[in-house]
Amino acid sequence: MNQEKMIKTAKVLDTVFRIARKVALIALIVLVVAMMAITVVHLINPDATIGTGFASLEVGSVTFEMMPETTPTNRQILVLTWIISLFAVGCGLILYDILRQAGKILDPMKEGNPFHPSVSSNIRHIGILILILDFVQQITDFVLSAYANHLISKFLPSDASVLIESNFQLSLTGVLVFFILLLVSYVFQYGAQLQQLSDETL
Prior knowledge:
It contains 4 helices and 3 strands, in the order αββααβα. With 202 residues, the chain is mainly alpha-helical. It has one domain. Strands 1-2-3 form a 3-stranded antiparallel beta sheet, with helices on one face. Strand 1 (55-59) and strand 2 form a beta hairpin. The radius of gyration is 23 Å and the shape is elongated. The relative contact order is 0.14.
């Protein structure tokens, strides 16, 4: 009965992950199309300003707040948006691969074989991807903070009313999750070895 529940749950999760992969892929395509549209707008009218009134934008650990007299230009917004989008695409591709690896883990479970030799390696692979994803997110915050300072010193007038807050902090969450998944992979690897010994005995 427990094996039947495991197989049923694995099939449901596999369907969920398949849908999630499709949603992630569509989101990446939409993002690329949106960036192309914004770039075309900038090429058509590079001197135009975007938005009126008080503007606030929060991205990661960086918050931009601008008063009406310092509304950013298309060029400033375009550079910021490209920075965000490039890192977002990178994170999206990593997330897509994580979901793909999760699907590989579920494949043998759908057949009632949770201790297949490939499961442990796929779990380690996911751990590495999560570690990379956490690193990319922290790099994104750092780059945005650096660009914020560059924005103040190079693009905006010295008397501009701009508030930029950066709460960048080094996070070890990805490292912690990586080691937890590494330990879990060892458990499944040991289980696979026991399963192999049992099969050879039979």
